[in-house]
């Protein structure tokens, strides 16, 4: 037993005497990290998550972009707008305008922010109705010299409608996409009292330049003066008396057209010019001196209809809805103009009086008076250009549109007891 113990002790001592250290393993820190990550399974989860995310986003991109084309998610026009968000994208043709553009299923047309100067007036309020119905946000700017809040009151409370009491002869700062510039007294009674064509147009052109908005000027057939060419085409320069009683309006609109084209050529402003011929319809000023409104108001009040001169002067009358359609097509189109917007159906003043008699009172009387100064003898638009480039032509004939105007006038004249029996105090013209 003793020898065995001695032997074992000797053996232990001998092993201790011959001890040599173990060889160091390579990359000890790396191996410890790998063993730890594998043990905790964290690295596996990270790698799996990266792989899933890569596959998911790769498949999603493949459904949107295929062979360099934008397919499911966006239309081409929307993609262009995403790449250049400051650029306004307008439809290139009337078909796309009528349908609101080609919009993918489930997406709505993006409404524009539009200012309408004179938007509480006769034509302006009907234009505002159409723009609001289309889904745009509209800012009406009006000083109520000839406009009326009643014309736009039905939009109060609509979050896409704003009304600013402001005279455009003073500058105005707004952020908008389009400007319809209608603000200007259009009847002789008003423009002889307060001519504001030039300064207001200059201010609104300045606004269009600052914010990059498209600008539409509503000019007039009066730029042709007492024309020597019949019917009038846009290339005709007119026959205007520069110092006559109507020149503040005639020459003012001609100057406004000049300013508009100068801003277009010199400052790169996108502009459109419409030359509007005689327009009638609901919301016209009752006693503004224009022939249709005067004839209707006089016949309703049982007064003689006032015809100036021999009554053989001719005019062309378009219903307001036709004009609004033309203005919107012009704004959304790609052509500067000018464009004649009017109804080529030509009536003498006596013929107009007879149509009013048929509509209101067959026994209405006609009274002749001396003609007014510089009253044009003939006025008829050539609308070939508007037909070809805008796809526009008037649809409402005088005998269909006049009853709608008469109904509106009857309600406004006799609906307000204060106006019953009132007599017209203004001078009628064939404007």
Automatic annotation (TrEMBL):
GO terms for molecular function: NAD+ binding; UDP-glucuronate decarboxylase activity. The chain crosses the membrane at residues 42-59. It comes from the Eukaryota. Keywords: Decarboxylase, Golgi apparatus, Lyase, Membrane, NAD, Transmembrane, Transmembrane helix. Residues 1-22 are annotated as: Disordered. The lineage of its organism: Eukaryota, Viridiplantae, Streptophyta, Embryophyta, Tracheophyta. GO terms for cellular component: Golgi cisterna membrane. Belongs to the NAD(P)-dependent epimerase/dehydratase family. UDP-glucuronic acid decarboxylase subfamily. It is found in: Golgi apparatus, Golgi stack membrane. Catalyzes the NAD-dependent decarboxylation of UDP-glucuronic acid to UDP-xylose. Necessary for the biosynthesis of the core tetrasaccharide in glycosaminoglycan biosynthesis. This is UDP-glucuronate decarboxylase. Its main location: Golgi. Residues 116-405 form the NAD(P)-binding domain. It is a single-pass type II membrane protein. Its EC number is 4.1.1.35.
């Amino acid at each position: 037993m003793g020898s065995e113990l001695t032997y074992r002790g000797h053996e232990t001592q001998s092993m201790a005497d011959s001890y040599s250290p173990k060889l160091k393993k390579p990359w000890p820190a790396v191996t410890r990290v790998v063993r730890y990550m594998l043990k905790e399974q964290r690295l596996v989860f990270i790698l799996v998550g990266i792989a899933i995310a890569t596959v998911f986003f790769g498949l999603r991109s493949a459904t949107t972009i295929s062979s360099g084309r934008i397919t499911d998610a966006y239309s081409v026009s929307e993609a262009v707008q995403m790449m250049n968000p400051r650029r306004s994208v307008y439809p290139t043709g009337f078909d796309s305008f009528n349908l609101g553009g080609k919009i993918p299923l489930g997406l709505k047309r993006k409404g524009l922010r539009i200012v309408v100067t004179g938007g509480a007036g006769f034509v302006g309020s009907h234009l505002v109705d159409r723009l609001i119905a289309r889904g745009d946000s509209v800012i009406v700017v009006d000083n109520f010299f000839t406009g009326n809040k009643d014309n736009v009151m039905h939009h109060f409370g609509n979050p896409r409608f704003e009304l600013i009491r402001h005279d455009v002869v003073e500058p105005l700062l707004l952020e908008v996409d389009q400007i319809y510039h209608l603000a200007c007294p259009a009847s002789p009674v008003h423009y002889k009292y307060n001519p504001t064509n030039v300064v207001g147009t200059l201010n609104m052109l300045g606004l269009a330049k600052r914010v990059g908005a498209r600008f539409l000027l509503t000019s007039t057939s009066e730029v042709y003066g007492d024309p020597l060419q019949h019917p009038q085409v846009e290339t005709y320069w007119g026959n205007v008396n520069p110092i006559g009683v109507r020149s503040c309006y005639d020459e003012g609109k001609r100057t406004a057209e000049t300013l508009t084209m100068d801003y277009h050529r010199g400052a790169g402003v996108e502009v459109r010019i419409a030359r509007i011929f005689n327009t009638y319809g609901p919301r016209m000023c009752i006693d503004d001196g224009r022939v249709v409104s005067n004839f209707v108001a006089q016949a309703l009040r049982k007064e003689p209809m006032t015809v100036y001169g021999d009554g053989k002067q001719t005019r062309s009358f378009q219903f307001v809805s036709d004009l609004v359609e033309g203005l919107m097509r012009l704004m959304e189109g790609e052509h500067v103009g000018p464009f004649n917007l009017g109804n080529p159906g030509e009536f003498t003043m006596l013929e107009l009086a007879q149509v009013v008699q048929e509509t209101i009172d067959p026994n209405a009387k006609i009274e002749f008076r001396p003609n007014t100064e510089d009253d044009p003898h003939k006025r008829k638009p050539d609308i070939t250009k508007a037909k070809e480039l805008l796809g526009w032509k008037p649809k409402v004939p005088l005998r269909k549109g006049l009853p709608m105007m008469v109904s509106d006038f009857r309600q406004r004249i006799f609906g307000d007891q204060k106006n019953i029996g009132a007599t017209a105090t203004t001078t009628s013209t064939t404007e």
